[in-house]
Amino acid sequence: MSNTQPDKSRLRPLQTSALAMAVGLFSPMAQADESPRAKPVSPSHMTTSDSSATLTARQQAIVPVAAFAASGDMPKLNAALNQGLDAGLSISDAREILVQVYAYAGFPRSLNALGELMKVTQARKQRGIQDDPGREPSRPIPKGDALLAAGTANQTKLSGARVEGALFEFAPTANEYLRSHLFGDIFERDNLDWQSRELATVGMLSAMSGVQPQLLAHVRISMNVGLSEGQMHQVADVLAERVDADSATRAREALAQHLAVLSGKKP
């Protein structure tokens, strides 16, 4: 994380799990282009992937780290963090993922997970393991109106169209928080690319029950940012092998629903 601190006036309870689990972009009432012909955009912090690509060991490692952090299982998170660092995650990568957890699962689980990362890195250092510290964002995070503009642009790029709808008309403050903080403060941090952030988010939401609309939205966004259908099937396989069957089932159902939309079939 950089030394830039977010405006504490925005960090109200609405911005914990409600940031992405109950409002706007991730609600069935939100409106965004679902056209299969819409082409993903590729900003500098978005990587690309072809249909034959598979997830790297590092990318696979993101999924259980995010899932166990979101579910609050610290012993399993400890093991997943060790495996992730061994697989090529930097300390900065892991820290970014665990900070992002708070937008989907709340501050308590994010803070507990960050504490576990501290324990893991300290223990590894004592064993003589030199983990890659990673890097900080390459540019300052904007403030004020510039932050809201950047967040709105990021939200639109990720979704594939401007996000609006009846829910935002009913609660416009929710979308302002989403745009200025989640898509601004967090997604403007380019030391973790958008594919990695979306793999983490799918891992988090798959590990949680009752958030199927949000999981579906992030499966769609994952493919918008260049992850292939095969890679998304692989995410579900990783969940089955390293997390649990329920998480894998949720991910597979969301992917099947999204692919039905792309093919023009009713989900």
From TrEMBL:
Transmembrane portions of the chain: none
Carboxymuconolactone decarboxylase-like domain sequence ranges: 173-256
Superkingdom, taxonomy of origin: Bacteria
Signal peptide segment: 1-32
Molecular function, one GO term: peroxiredoxin activity
Annotated SUPFAM superfamilies: AhpD-like (SSF69118)
Gene3D superfamilies reported for this sequence: AhpD-like
Descriptive protein name: 4-carboxymuconolactone decarboxylase
InterPro entries, per database record: 4CMD/NDH-1_regulator, AhpD-like, CMD-like
Keywords: Signal
Lineage: Bacteria, Pseudomonadati, Pseudomonadota, Betaproteobacteria, Burkholderiales
Originating species: Bordetella ansorpii
